[in-house]
Each structure stands twice: as structure tokens, then as C-alpha cells.
Amino acid sequence: MINVQDIKTAQENITDTIHTTPILQSAQLSKLCNNQLFLKSEHLQKTGSFKIRGATNKVKQAVKEGAKSITAASSGNHGQAVAYIANQLDIPATIVVPTDANQCKTNAIQAYNGKIESCGTTSAERIPRAKELAEAQSGIYIPPYDDPYIMAGQGTVGLEILDQVKDVDAVVVPVGGGGLISGILTAIKETNPAVKVYGAEPDSANDTFLSLQNNKITAIPATRTIADGLRTSQPGDLTFPVLQKYLDELVLVSEEEIRFAFSFVMERMKQLIEPSSAVAIAAMINGRLPLENKKIVTVVSGGNVDIGKIEELIVNTNIK
């Protein structure tokens, strides 16, 4: 398992690349959630998501190890981040994306000089192909979440939260493969274990929820959710034990609840966030967690939304 020192080392390693993202607040959102709610705004991060943190930490390590090229398998955000930092370090990158990948994310990968290859619709299909390409090109495969350098890089979000929100009571994190939440859990629980850390997952992509229930990694079939960044088939071999050790609770939210949170943040806060980011906020709006009158940080993991699909995501946010 990674430890908090690994995360502090990652923070030193990536500080020249990433932004320290701001904390946003909305009085309306706090009132709706019956808590003082803060948003850790990784949608304002370089490349539009938290993924640049882990990608930078891992790709820099790969360059040290003599990689001639980089490959990754990604629904979008991880691919953008890997392509960006590889381009910065002048090393070629190939990103294997699903056949139904978000167009704005693949456009960004190409803008960072990343080569695109499409393969299947699940991570179980994409990852082997990316590994094959790495071997064929004398390169190094950069995992989307299940890697200690990736996890440590993502954990820097947790260090920033502790520094930016004094006396925070709890942090709520969207859960896909577990790279972000495992890093945040390690950073927070090994610094201040009194702070609660909760996960939130779409009920139609509930592989981590089932895995925790079964006390073992449990895969689910290919699924569809508007929270496309959380559409993994199972948690990681390295990330899952961290959740088992440290996570306080994981809750599920519906597609309509995600749409409402997405729409509310856009309408009332004028922030365009990804549906994946809205999952943690949806958990708070719908009272999924035993929290009231507390200082809560929800992690807004990214903001790379296909502009052409925004109308499909919006719902009425009138509250009676």
C-alpha cells in the first residue's frame, strides 16, 4: 500500500505541472444539503480533471526508467492527462479509448499530440490492448488508477483539502476504479483519521459497492451511465484494499439524481462539471450520508463535458 509520505513525495514531484485548485461554495447548495458544503474544484485543473496529478507522477517516473513511448487506456480524462504530460516531456503517447468515447475528450487527446486507438467499450478490453502496444513500442503502460504512482499523485487532492478547509468534518469522493479515493483516503486518514471519507458511485456502475459488500473484488458486466468517467468493471487490485482499510461508507445514487446535481451546479453556481463529478454532490443533496450541520468537501473530479450533449443532461432544478 502507498503511505502519506509517498503522497508528499508526489506533491513535490508534480508541483511544477499542476494547479492547486480552488475551493468553491454555494449558500443555496449548502442549505439544500443541510451542511456547510465546499467543492474541491478539480474541474478547473489543468486538462480539466484530477487525472493530471497521477499521470504526471507516473509519466515522470516512466521517463526516469527509460521509456521510449507511453500508452494508456482511458475513457477520456486519464488519456488527456497522459497525452498532455507526455507531450510536455517530448515522449510519444498512444491512448486506447472506448469506441463510444466522449468526443470532447478524444479531441483534447489529439490536441496534446496523443495518438488515438479505439477498442471495445470496457476497461477489460482497453487495458490489454494498451499493454500490447507498450510492449511493441518499447514503451511503458500508464494505468488509469491501479498503480502506486498514480494513487499517490491523486492523493495530493487530499493534502490540499486538509490545507484549504480547516476543521473539515468529511470528504465525499466519486468512485470509479478507486485511484482518486484511495489516494485521498491515504492522505487524510494517515494525517487526521478523525476526518470521515465517503465514496459515491452510480447505482448502474456499482462494482465497488458490490466488492465491499462481498469483501472481495467483484466485476460487473459492461454498463451505461451518464457518469462515463466512473464506468469501470471492477475496482483495482491495489486500490481496493485501501478502501477496505480506510473507507467510512460508500453510497449509490441514481442517474436522475446525478442529472439534478449536474444541473443545479450549472444553474446556481455557473460551473460546468462532469456528471461523474456530480455523483458526490448528488449523494449530499439526497441525504445518503449521516451528516448534518458539518463542514463537508465534495470532490469535483472533472469538467470535460461534450458541449453537444449538455441539453440531454439538464433537468428542472425547481425545488418546492
UniProtKB/TrEMBL annotation:
Domain of life: Bacteria
Coiled-coil segments on the chain, per record: none
Root EC class: lyase
Gene Ontology BP term (one): D-serine biosynthetic process
Essential cofactor(s): Mg(2+); Ca(2+); Mn(2+); pyridoxal 5'-phosphate
Keywords on record: Lyase, Magnesium, Pyridoxal phosphate
Gene Ontology terms for molecular function: ATP binding; L-serine ammonia-lyase activity; magnesium ion binding; pyridoxal phosphate binding; serine racemase activity; threonine deaminase activity; threonine racemase activity
Enzyme Commission (EC) number: 4.3.1.19
Domain Tryptophan synthase beta chain-like PALP: 14-302
Chemical reaction(s) catalysed: L-threonine = 2-oxobutanoate + NH4(+)
InterPro entries registered for this protein in UniProt: Ser/Thr_deHydtase_PyrdxlP-BS (IPR000634), TrpB-like_PALP (IPR001926), TrpB-like_PALP_sf (IPR036052)
Signal peptide: none
Task performed by this protein: Catalyzes the anaerobic formation of alpha-ketobutyrate and ammonia from threonine in a two-step reaction. The first step involved a dehydration of threonine and a production of enamine intermediates (aminocrotonate), which tautomerizes to its imine form (iminobutyrate). Both intermediates are unstable and short-lived. The second step is the nonenzymatic hydrolysis of the enamine/imine intermediates to form 2-ketobutyrate and free ammonia. In the low water environment of the cell, the second step is accelerated by RidA.
Family membership: Belongs to the serine/threonine dehydratase family.
Stated name of the protein: threonine ammonia-lyase
